Write the structure tokens for this entry.
Amino acid sequence: MSLTMSDIKLTTEELEDMLDRSAKRGAKLVLRELGLQDETAAVDIREIRSLLDTWRQTRLSIWNTFVKITTIAVFTFIGAAIWMKLGN
């Protein structure tokens, strides 16, 4: 005797329970594949987030420094040009 999908009867609660168990198994599998299945996984994630925040702050700082140096260079060039023009 073979069963078909129409022969299977599940309540909403049973279906939700099956889906919850499947989702938990899938999440555990992914975490294990990423090496984040142990007790230190939360610490690892916090460290990764901290590194990412630090990288973002560093990138912003580099951009700000570039803009400041470019602005100073432009004003220096303009000042030198004016000084050379007035000096003659």
User: Anything to note?
Assistant: The chain has one domain: 11-87. DSSP finds two helices and no strands in the chain. The mean pLDDT is 92.
